[in-house]
């Protein structure tokens, strides 16, 4: 059960980690929407949780490994969901920007991700990364 002093969720939903992405990442319950899955995947990146990322990546596009531990550390610092569109055929898109730092340099990733719902669970399929216009 969440406590009053639980840390905020890295996905910036405004809720605590335990009331937001924690149960999804632990596998207690599946994310109910593609947006909730995308937020949990962002949070998994902040925690370098390759297990959750691989488990929620559709088998048709999932890479063998993600190599999250690299020589160039990435610090994820912010997420903004631009839109979430669920389609009637069990597919959805989520457009977002994710801010991060690489070697202290501020960066921003703008992506439109595709998701599919199979067997009552959402999976990340792939994403279109938009050019940075800064």
List keywords for this structure.
four-stranded antiparallel sheet, 134 residues, alpha+beta, 3 helices, Nuclear Transport Factor 2, Chain: A
Structural class: alpha+beta
Low-confidence stretches: none
Strand order of the largest sheet: 1-2-3-4
Number of strands: 4
Q: What's the overall average pLDDT, rounded? A: 92
The ordered string of helix (H) and strand (E) elements is HHHEEEE
**Radius of gyration over alpha carbons?**
15 Å
User: According to CATH, what is the class?
Assistant: Alpha Beta
The CATH architecture term is: Roll
Major sheet summary line: 4 strands, antiparallel
- Annotated CATH topology: Nuclear Transport Factor 2, Chain: A
Helix content: 10-25%
Task: Quickly count the domains.
Answer: 1
Which shape, going by the Cα principal axes? Answer: globular
Tally of contiguous helical segments: 3
The proportion of strand residues reads 35-45%
Termini separation (Å)? 42 Å
What does this entry look like structurally?
The structure is a single chain. The chain is α+β, with helices and mostly antiparallel strands and 134 residues long. Helix content is 19%, strand content 37%. The protein has one domain: Nuclear Transport Factor 2, Chain: A (Roll). A four-stranded antiparallel beta sheet has the order 1-2-3-4, covered by helices on one side. The N and C termini lie far apart (42 Å).
């Amino acid at each position: 059960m969440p406590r009053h002093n639980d840390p905020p969720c890295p996905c910036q939903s405004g809720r605590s980690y335990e009331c937001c992405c924690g149960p999804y990442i632990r596998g207690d319950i599946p994310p109910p929407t593609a947006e909730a899955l995308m937020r949990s995947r962002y949070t998994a990146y902040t925690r370098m949780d390759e297990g959750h990322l691989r488990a929620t990546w559709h088998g048709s596009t999932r890479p063998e490994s993600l190599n999250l531990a690299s020589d160039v550390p990435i610090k994820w610092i912010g997420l903004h969901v631009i839109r979430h569109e669920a389609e009637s055929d069990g597919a959805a898109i989520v457009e977002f920007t994710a801010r991060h730092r690489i070697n202290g340099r501020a960066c921003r990733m703008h992506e439109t991700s595709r998701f599919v719902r199979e067997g009552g669970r959402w999976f990340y399929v792939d994403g279109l990364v938009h050019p940075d216009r800064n």
